[in-house]
Structure formats: structure tokens, C-alpha cells
Amino acid sequence: KNEQYLDSQAKRESNARSYPRRIPIAIREANGIYVKDVEGKVFIDCLGGAGTLALGHNHPVVIEAIKRVLDDKLPLHTLDLTTPVKEEFVEELFTSLPEKFAKNARIQFCGPSGSDAVEAALKLVKTATGNRSMLAFQGGYHGMTHGSLSLMGNLGPKKQIPGLMPDVHFLPFPYDYRCPFGIGGKEGVEIGQTYIEQLLHDPEGGIVPPAGMIMEIVQGEGGAIPAPDSWVREIRRMTKAKGIPLIIDEIQTGLGRTGKLFAFEHAGITPDVVVLSKAIGGSLPLAVVVYHEDLDKWNPGAHAGTFRGNQMAFAAGTATIKFVKENGLAAHAEEIGSRLLSQLHDIQAQTHCIGEVRGRGLMIGVEIVDKQHALNKLGQNEPAHPELANRIQQECFKRGLIIELGGRHSSVVRFLPPLIITAEEIDTVSEIFLEAVKQAEA
Ligand code: PMP
């Protein structure tokens, strides 16, 4: 029974545990887009390890790659010593990155999680510039360790921690639906750009020369918010003009999820630093920071750590990257994502609580709002409705669909299915979601 495991978990695991509170199952098996709980109930997994499972659960190429490491008795642990398996991973990753970026790039292997890669990126740009402050974006998410949490543009998870990095300046993200300037659309985006440009140029504007700027191209945990390509290009132009290293956090967007192998490719920019984790380890823990060689100013040993790359993760990662490329999964994500977007727009028209449907590729969000209430005083949109979003999540769960909530008010339903999901499977997801919304609204 699920209950037995959940009771034990609740008794022994910390109060900080998160997903089990909303997805109350113990998982026994998993295959492709499906997970099966200990009671034998099957669920479609549209959380996908929070964007990690590009190939779904236990994909044969991943299993095969891991088995090979074991069968060949390859070393399971080597600190950051090199091995043929590691070399193969580096080669595969570098040839996947745009040539313009990869040709002058260096890689640093980090601890196993995305947050570790963000920590390393922070140290890298601080070392290279000698500056201490950082620029980040409202609604951004970069991890839960001390430094990465400091960069989070959402107060919620930061409230209980006194003494985070104080020198972080948060800039407005082009979140059209809740535009920080009271105007959505193109005009709001342009005002946002001008605002940022002025801040960067005004020596009395309160921004001291920063060590770097960090941003997501599509905010993930922030609620599946894509930045327009033109805005991304403007940010690149401004940071370049001011000599500010630009760190693109591709931890969630990387490896095909948004319809390109890397989300920064949509705008055609070349970042100074890219942080990667989640999908690149083929469902095993792996995190790296890849950056322009000019920033490589830290001393030998400046970023050490016991677990910096795991042979099985390298093998699984190489197999995953190859499979994504050889099977055109980025284009597939784009196609299936458009199908889901259009179905969700239909659902929006048939129901009463969906404020906005948005996303890019298979990184899609549905903002649940309270349409009973008047528009807010800027006339922008209806207030967020986290309780209803929660009910929708529970109704989906009852019907065998796992989805996650995100956004600044936990009111955005997020879809992050494995990239291998088929058109028929996405149709089922939409059908279940429609029923769930109708039931939750009733
Ligand atoms: N950056 C982004 C954009 C993320 O989505 C996440 C994880 N959701 C992280 C960083 C942190 O990664 P991890 O949870 O592996 O530390």
C-alpha cells in the first residue's frame, strides 16, 4: 500500500520534502512516460523528474549504456580524473553546442546537482571580474543552495534563511501576462528593455559593476514563461556592451526541451557561460558549467569536490544526447508542444479559470486565475488562484496524470513530459486535464 510508505516517509524524512506532499505515491516501476505505484496504479508522468527525463524512464539506450559500464568493469568513481567514458561525454556535449560557443569553451564538472553548477558559475564570474554583485531576474529559479538561492527572484523559499548573498539586483523578466510595467505585449517588453538599459548605464542608479548576469531563456519553476527572442538579443547586446558576463541557465531548458537543443539558440545569441544539468545526465546526476576560455582565471583546485562526474552518468548522458540528436527530439518537442498548446487553448475556451496558456516546446504552463474577481488595479489580469490550481492537480492525479505546479503563486500548472511522448499520448493528457479542470471548477 502507498500509505505504508508515505507514513514511514513522513515520520523519517525532513519537513522540507516537497513533491510527496502533492504526489502521494510510492513508485515501484517506471517505463517511458509511465510510472506504476506499489498498488499497481499507472500514471502518466508529465513532471518527468522536473524536466530531467528527456527520454522518459528507463529508456533502452540509457539502460544499455549503464549496463556497459558495469559489464566492462569500468571505474565507478574517479574524482575528476579523466576516463574514455568521460572523454566521450565531453566530445558529445561540445559537438552539440553551437560551434561559435563551443570553439572557445572550457568545461568544469561540478557536484551532482544543478545548484552545484550555478554555484560554480557564480564563483567563476566573481573570480574573473573581481566584482561581487549579481544581476538576476524576477521569478527566476537557479537552485536551493546558499548562493543559487540568493539568485532566486521569488521570495517564498528565501524567507526563512537570513543572510543570503545581499548583492543581487533583480531585473524585470518579460512576463507579459503579469507585466511588471502594467502593460503587456510588445510595448511592455520594450519598456522593460529600456528600463534595464538605463539601469546598466546610470552610474548613480544603484547598480555597482556586477560580476555577471544570470537568466533562464524560458523560466521554468517561475511558471513556464518564455522570453521573446528579440528581448534575449537585447539583453545580450547590453551585457556585451558593458562587459558583463552573461550566464544562461539551461538546467531545465537544455537538450531539446524548448524545441532547440539549447534554448539560447532560438535567439541566436552566444552566452559567456552556460550551466547544464538534469537531462544531460540521462536521468543520473550530472552538472557542468561551460564557459568562454577568457573567464578561465581561477587557480588550479579553485573548484574541487569529490563527486564531479560519475561514469554511469557520463555513459547515460552520452547515450541520451546522441539519441536526442539522432531522433530529432528537439523538433519533435516543438511539434508535440504546439499540439498540446493548441489543445490547452481549446480547454481555456471551454472552462473558466485559465488566464493564460504559454510555453515553448515541451515546457508548457497554464496559469490558473480567479476570474470572479475584477481585474487588478493595473487592469492587467485576474488574481492567481493557487487553491484551484491545487484542486486541478489533485483531480489530474486521481485520473492517473502527474503534473506539477509552479509560478510565483504556485498557480501555474506545468507540463514537462518526456520528449519521447507521442501525439496520441499528448491527446490523452489533454483529455484528462480537461476533465480535471471541469471537476475542479464544479
Ligand atoms: N536552474 C533551473 C533553471 C532549474 O530548473 C533547477 C531545478 N529545477 C535548478 C537550477 C537547480 O537544479 P537542482 O535542483 O538539480 O539543484
From TrEMBL:
Pathways involved: Amine and polyamine biosynthesis; ectoine biosynthesis; L-ectoine from L-aspartate 4-semialdehyde: step 1/3
Top-rank EC class of the record's enzyme: transferase
Q: Does the keyword Transferase apply?
A: yes
Q: Which cofactor does it need?
A: pyridoxal 5'-phosphate
Record-listed E.C. numbers = 2.6.1.76
Q: Which SUPFAM superfamilies match?
A: PLP-dependent transferases
**UniProt cross-references to CDD domains, sorted A to Z:** OAT_like
Q: Which GO MF terms are attached to this record?
A: transaminase activity
Q: Nucleotidyltransferase as a keyword?
A: no
Q: Which UniProt keywords apply?
A: Aminotransferase, Pyridoxal phosphate, Transferase
Q: Which family is this sequence assigned to?
A: Belongs to the class-III pyridoxal-phosphate-dependent aminotransferase family.
This protein is called Diaminobutyrate--2-oxoglutarate transaminase
